[in-house]
Amino acid sequence: MTRIAVYMTGGIAVYKAVQVVRDLEKNGHEVRVVMTKNAEHFVTSNTLAALTKYPVLDDLWSKENEASIPHVHLARWSELALVVPATANFIAKMANGLADDAASTTILATAAPKMIVPAMNDQMWNNPATRHNVLFLKENGVKIMDPAVGMLAESYAAKGRMPEPADVVDWVEKYLNQKNSLQGKIFVITAGGTEESIDPVRFIGNRSSGKMGFALAENAARLGATVKLIYGNVTANPPQNKNIKMYHATSSEDMFEQVKSEFKKSDVLIMAAAVADWRMPKVADHKLKKQIGQETLNLTLIKTKDILQEVAHHKKHNQLVIGFAAETNDLLENAEKKLKKKGADMIVANDVSHNVFGNDYDQVTLLTQDGHIDKWPRMSKQEIAYGLIEKIARELK
Ligand code: CTP
C-alpha cells in the first residue's frame, strides 16, 4: 500500500483520471486528490471526494482549511505524487517552481517521487517550451509517461492523448514495485575527474563533468540503495538525496584508497570517474618557475593504480563491479579488451570523440563477461543511468 496524492489539472482527460483513482484504490493504495480550478470545469470535486472518502484539496484559502495548512500536510503525507492528466501549463509551472494555487504549491512542497501523465494537443506537446520543460523535469528525476498517439479532443489523430487508465495504473505499479528493489544494497559510485598535482598551483586533470556518476547515484538512491558517492573534480550539480553520502577524492591514489575501503562493505561498484592514468612521481613543494631562456618543459610521469582492475580482481562472488570505457576510436575492440583485462562484470562503452563531456546526452554500448553486446540508442544521461541501475537491480536479484 502506498499513500498517493493524485494531482488533476485542467484538461478533458480528467474524466479518465477518475478511473485511475478508482483503480489505484482497488489495488489497495490510499489516495488523496488535489485539483486545479480548471480541472473542476471537467469533473466535480464531489465525485473525487466521494470516491476517496476524503475532501479534495482545491483551495488554499477556504475557511475550513484556515488552521490546518492542508497543502503542507498532504505534501508530507504522500509517498508518491501522480499528476494525471498534466497540462502543458502545469508542466511549465513544475519546471519553473511556480506555486500560485493549491496543486502547484503542494507539488512544489513535496519530497515524494513525482510521476506525470501529460495530455494535451500535439502542438502544445511539440512546442519547444514544453520540450524544454519536459526535459528539465526528466533530468531532475520526474517520471514522465509518453503520451499516446490517437484521436485528440480536436478530432484529429496525433501524439498528445492521455494513455488509457489501465496503462497508467500499470505504469505506476511497475514503478512502485521497483521503488524499493535496492533496499539494503550498498553502492559505491565514483564521479568526475581526478586531479594529479604537479606543484601547489597546477594539476593534470580531465574534462569529466561528473554528470553520469551523479545520475547513477541519484537513480540507485531512488530505488532504495545506500550510495557512497566518491567524487573528484566536477562541474555538474551534486545530487541531493538522504540516501547518498558524499566523499571527495582529489587524486587517483586518494580515490583508490576510498574506493577500496568502502567497497569491502558494498554490493556494487560503478567506476564512472575519469581516473588519471599518469601522475608525478613526486609533487613539487613550491611553484615551478620558468627559467630564463627555457622554451620547453619535460615532465616524467609514472603510472597510477588501475582502481577498477584492482578492485575487480579481489571482489567476492556476490559483488558486482562495473566500469566505463571512454574511447575515441575502435570502440568495441578497445572496450572488449578493457572488459577482459580489468575483470569487471560489465563495461559501459561510450564514444567520447564528439562533445560528450558535460553533455546531457550520450550513446552507450554494454559489454558483459558472457560475450553479450547491447547497443543502446542515444538518450539523456538520466535515462541511461536509470536503465543501468534497473539492469543492475535485476542482476542483484
Ligand atoms: N579506471 C580506473 N583507474 C584508472 C584508470 C581507469 O579505475 N587508473 C577505470 C575508469 O573509471 C573506467 C575504466 O577504468 O571505469 C576505463 O577507463 P578509461 O579511461 O576508459 O580507460 P583506461 O583504463 O584509462 O585506458 P586507456 O586510457 O588506455 O583508454
From TrEMBL:
Q: Which GO terms describe its molecular function?
A: FMN binding; metal ion binding; phosphopantothenate--cysteine ligase activity; phosphopantothenoylcysteine decarboxylase activity
| Entry keyword set | Decarboxylase, Flavoprotein, FMN, Ligase, Lyase, Magnesium, Metal-binding, Multifunctional enzyme
Residue intervals of the Flavoprotein domain: 3-174
Question: Domain DNA/pantothenate metabolism flavoprotein C-terminal, which positions?
Answer: 182-394
Q: In which pathway does it act?
A: Cofactor biosynthesis; coenzyme A biosynthesis; CoA from (R)-pantothenate: step 2/5; Cofactor biosynthesis; coenzyme A biosynthesis; CoA from (R)-pantothenate: step 3/5
Q: What is its EC number?
A: 4.1.1.36, 6.3.2.5
What the entry lists under HAMAP family is as follows: CoaBC
Q: What this chain does, per the record?
A: Catalyzes two sequential steps in the biosynthesis of coenzyme A. In the first step cysteine is conjugated to 4'-phosphopantothenate to form 4-phosphopantothenoylcysteine. In the second step the latter compound is decarboxylated to form 4'-phosphopantotheine. Catalyzes two steps in the biosynthesis of coenzyme A. In the first step cysteine is conjugated to 4'-phosphopantothenate to form 4-phosphopantothenoylcysteine, in the latter compound is decarboxylated to form 4'-phosphopantotheine.
Protein name, per record = Coenzyme A biosynthesis bifunctional protein CoaBC
Organism encoding this protein: Lactobacillus acidophilus (strain ATCC 700396 / NCK56 / N2 / NCFM)
Instruction: Tell me the name of the encoding gene.
Output: coaBC
